[in-house]
Amino acid sequence: MVLYTLMVICAIGMYWANRQYKTKGVAWGRPVAGLFGVGALVLALSSIFSTSFGCEKKARQTAILDKELRYTDAQFQYLGGYMKRKFADHSVLLIASPKIAGSSEYSDNRLDTIEGALKEVFDGKLTIAGTVHLESPESQDGMPPMFETMFTAEAFDEIIEDNSGANLILSLVGLPMNWKEMEFWQTEDEKRPKLIVTNGQVYELYDAIAENYINAVVHYNPSSEYNFQDSVPSDITEAFEKRYLLIDADNIAKIASKNEGMFAAPEE
Fold first, then answer.
1. Coil, helix or strand for 103?
2. Helix 2-24 with 29-86: angle, nearest 10 deg
3. Which residues touch 93 (CB under 8 Å, ≥6 apart)?
4. Segment (H or E) for 187
5. What is the pLDDT of residues 34-89, one digit of tens each?
């Protein structure tokens, strides 16, 4: 808006200075008109370049986000296939991030992509009981709430209690910071829902995964070399393995041996 206003002012100044030269023979009229003309040209070019670069930047961002959604689709189609093989006839509850007013369109598209991928690959063998969004506490002193205040051991246990019909929990937000305090672990094996975790840390989870308290985890592959310009493989397995690892009791020892430092050293 400011650029357009300045261009109008320059155009008016150019016209006025040119009129001064033509009607009154003022010597400075023509050079001043030229200066105003140059100014208008510079402002016009600035506007064009600004718009061009802005569009180019937005196009790059859109392309990157589109690739991320395709990786997300591959991630959950692959995971969904694993779940269908391992846990057929289970009712799945998704735990997702809080719904926040004004959140990005990408966040909504990502959740839609996840749910769509799972439903497609489940093919009726599993059902999605629902998606529970974490509750976001009120901000304090204008500061956004910390994630650990949204997702606590108590909050996790309440979600499980309120959704007792689900026998497979798929967390899209990792585990609470104080996950060891969850009453969930004390539930008898035959009554405790299966648990799959994505988008969380695994450093302290070796024993929990090896002993099937956590039935599977999807974690970023440490050896993955991500390049924004790389294309997303069309094959689901290839796309998944390019970015992620699926860790369970059957392969955790092998994965740990290949990725030193991924898990904490066993307690003696």
1. coil
2. 160
3. 128, 129, 130, 131, 132, 159, 163, 166, 168, 169, 170, 193
4. none
5. 554 555 555 455 555 555 555 556 666 777 788 889 999 999 999 999 999 999 99
Write down the pTM of the prediction.
0.76
pLDDT in tens, 115-144: 999 999 999 899 999 999 998 766 555 555
In 41-73, which positions are buried (b, 16+ CB within 10 angstroms) versus exposed (e)? eebeeeeeeeeeeeeeeeeeeeeeeebbbbbbb
Q: Quick one: 64-258 is in which CATH superfamily?
A: Response regulator (3.40.50.2300)
Mean pLDDT of the chain: 81
Check: CB of residue 176 under 8 Å from CB of residue 151: yes
Question: Do the beta carbons of residue 104 and residue 111 sit within 8 Å?
Answer: no
